[in-house]
Amino acid sequence: MASAEVKITMNGRLRPTFFANQNTAVGDNETNTRDIMKLDGYGDFTDTLKLAFNNEEKTAGLTFSVNVTNGNDSKTVGTYYQHEDGTIDTNSKKNTGETNNPTKIELKESNNKFGNFLTLNQFDIWAKVLGTDLMLGAGSWKDGWADGSYRVKKDVDALNAEGLDFERFKLGSAFKSAPSLFVDDLANFYGGSNALAAYLEYPLAIDDQMSLKFTAVAVKSTFDDDSGDKTANYDAGWSGRIQFNMKDMFNSELILKRPVANTQVIAFYAKPTLLKELDATVGGSYTIASGGNEAWNGAFDIDLRARYDLSGLLFGEGEENKFSITWFSKFSSVDATNGKAAAKVNSGIVGLDGKAGGLIDNQDITKLLWNNLSAKYVVVKDMLTASLNVGVINVLSNEGDAEYGLNIRVTPGAQVQLTKGATFWAGVTYSRASYNDGKATTTDDTVVQSWSIPAIFRVKM
Fold first, then answer.
1. How far apart are CA 89 and CA 58, in angstroms?
2. E-only strand ranges, 259-346
3. Using CA atoms, how far apart are residues 163 and 43, in angstroms rounded to an integer?
4. What is the pLDDT of residues 375-387, one digit of tens each?
5. Which of 305, 398, 420, 431 has its CA 20 to 30 A from that of 202?
6. CA 156, 159, 161, 165 torsion: positive or negative?
7. Across the strands, what pairs with 14?
8. Could you tell me which residues are beta bridge partners of residue 254?
């Protein structure tokens, strides 16, 4: 340890809601939910403490981090059924000739709690093999293990608002429990977290202008059955990534994932280097499923992301990060024949918790479009920054008689730099969605509207 390089970082956030009012109206019937000074209204309190150790030669290292939270219960992110013949699918009914009901298997999101508030966030050990560039590693990643540059997500633009009012969906599907959910997370499947993973990584420089990097990952998939006992009758998964970069032209990554038997996901994303001021990603994923897992077969999504820094154009050459616009767009689709029973939207953007609007409880959605526009303007450097975020979810197709209005959320806000490494942001949020299940007994739309004043106090060092 005397000759090791040690880095310690801390990232703490308190995200209260000063005031919030949510109104749900069905015809003349209305209900209101109102909160004042709710400390975890905008998101759980999170404080991440990270320690990174490298040896003097930087040929081996360890990264360890924990989250201090108010304690989140584990949740089910996928439900499957194993039949007597060994096949696994989403069908809870007996197959022809089957004598017993299939065994229910639930994919759980593990919290790895210590006590009731301390959660393992990341654990990663790695070493270069025999003095070569081949890296062997193993670990666990709660927040995902992806190349974050492809997400075109910058804290400097999000003003710490993150998912709730900036990046509602990561790259991949917008549907809950889809195999391509957060598709470029190599260490986790179906949006879960903290699966044990082991990996090999090897970079290869073709010449001064081109390079490749190969990554192969084995992931342990753990399930809980109805009794809560661990079961090992489900195949462990694997993932792989090939990154091809050409200097000053583009970066790209090809991702392959096999979360369970008979289910494969392929994804490709490219970052063209068109302009110095433009950071962009375009790509998507496609799912191939068979052998009883056909629910997601043919599901695909397309992502387009772009951030443009207008500072030099508006304020003169040499100016950076003073005024920028970020655009996210996602189209997700499932095959109506295979996947309509499985396709729940991962989350809406309406209501105090960002999940109202009828998108969670109904399973007939097959095509979905999400657009998000964010703008940031530095009013006074190192002191005051203004922001605006507009998010819209539009259901393009469903297999029932349901009717969906636009699911919209608008948040203007401002951030004050309290001191170096410490910021305070506050905004005003309005959201609205309407929904009608299309049944003969339902004549009035359900309309959800909310007003809130969220805030984020963050210390990062």
1. 45
2. 263-272, 278-289, 300-309, 323-333, 344-345
3. 10
4. 999 999 999 999 9
5. 305
6. negative
7. 457
8. 242, 268
